[in-house]
Write the structure tokens for this entry.
Amino acid sequence: MGSLELDSVHTVHAHVEPANRASARVLEKAGFTRFESTGEPIGYQRMVS
């Protein structure tokens, strides 16, 4: 069972270094959206229903 399938998980967060554009694109394709974060690394999140 993955973390996205657990009832207690509502939001998944990930952080990517700005220079790592390939990883950022993978997160976006997986349904993550960029959220406000101060400085580096860049924060992404995905809401789990």
Residues 21-29 form the longest helix (9 residues). Strands lie at 11-16, 33-35, 42-47. The two ends are 16 Å apart (CA to CA).
